[in-house]
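Q: How do we represent a protein-ligand complex in a form that can be generated token by token?
A: Start from the inputs.
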Amino acid sequence: MTNAQQRIEAIFEQVIKRNPGEPEFHQAVREVIDTLAPVLEKHPSYAEQKIIERICEPERQIIFRVPWQDDNGEVHINRGFRVGFNSALGPYKGGLRFHPSVMLGTIKFLAFEQTFKNALTGLPIGSGKGGSDFDPKGKSDSEVMRFCQSFMTELYRHIGELTDVPAGDMGVGAREIGYLFGQYKRITNRYESGILTGKSPSWGGALVRKEATGYGAVFFAEEMLKIKGRDLEGAKCLVSGSGNVAIYAMEKLQSLGAKVVACSDSAGFIYDKTGIDLNTVKQVKEVERQRIKNYVNEHPDAEYHENDNIWDIPCDLALPCATQNELDENSARTLINNGCMAVSEGANMPCTPEAVRLFLDSDVAYGPGKAANAGGVATSALEMQQNASRDSWSFEHTEKRLKEIMTNIHNDCYNTAEEFGYKGNYMVGANIASFRRVAEAMLAFGVI
Ligand code: NDP
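Then emit the structure tokens for the protein with NDP bound:
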């Protein structure tokens, strides 16, 4: 083991010791710092100034009580979180997740990933993430509204255009962002469009923000395929999830000539060999907020599977767009054996470390989430630009910017991997390129 590797092992031991019971955070840290030894060797000042040690410690962590009343008057208590992880490149920036599984460690893993993702966009944004263990599923609109109002009643004092700018994530879409913004505006007596992104375009939001993460993951896949001399025309695709990221990934795949045959939700997946009808998926998930199995009511020839694995279906391209650790080693092996060409992660950390290792050892092009799904936060940064200049751009212009950003991220990851002797390894490229960008800013600021 080299000195740099020993140093990284020691840092990782400390991370585990200082953050007990947070396995997802450990996993995210391990995946990044394991690839950084060559950078430490090349830049000794990063080690002297303990940049990795500092990058693994969130700048601030806020936890608060969120009491609210349901439609029957019963009182519920949830927990709210906001972690500002790193502000070397700009104000904290990252989404809010409302899901019953949310704990501090979940938010820390997401905020840590966000540090590198945001750096890859090349835009002036630091990293943060937040959310709550509130479950929006089955709640009425008024319950969601009362919850959001209570959540913002505490959160408002911690955010700001130049401090921390939240957005959506799982369970937080346009409806929730609207309620959150309304409460912020009411409490502060200020119409500060720049305090949240993911707003509706009718009141300060950017066109393409809703579509950006999914579209971006497809643009990233397209670039990876180009390197292999392939394209999306006629490619058979699997997309897990049927939320914001999945729906717009499917939309872009279809518009580029690919055929999406399956998508899922947390209860099961649908398989439609004739190609998924996206209008039905949007109606079921976005409008009715129902289960994906209802798709087969409209398309009786399609299959609904409750206990099977979506990744068992043979495909050319896989886009995991649901949640962390949803694609394991066995699934990765099946995808490889079925001749899958590329995996582009729309979700954050959807592939387990074992699955990633298999992809990296195979011919499958593997696009890690921090690069492949950076289109969402990049377009959020474009929303911030538009809010700051009181401007609004057309759909075409914004999508063109998104595509340029995704192509740049792809090339940055590809070229950096090659520079360090890991040609084709987008994970190493993404980690090193983004780490260097954050590290340089941290060095410039001194020990803070
Ligand atoms: P949504 O809440 O809109 O959708 C999540 C989808 O994933 C739902 O269809 C949900 O099903 C499904 N799902 C949840 N858990 C599982 C599971 N264990 N197996 C299969 N499906 C599951 O969230 P988003 O689309 O916004 O986010 C999806 C992922 O993308 C997350 O990892 C998020 O962090 C990441 N991401 C999101 C960005 C954004 O802009 N929104 C930006 C970058 C990353 P059900 O309806 O049953 O809950």
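The pocket of NDP is lined by residues 168-171, 213, 240-246, 264-267, 321-323, 326, 346-348, 373, 376 (CB under 6 Å). The chain has 18 helices and twelve strands.
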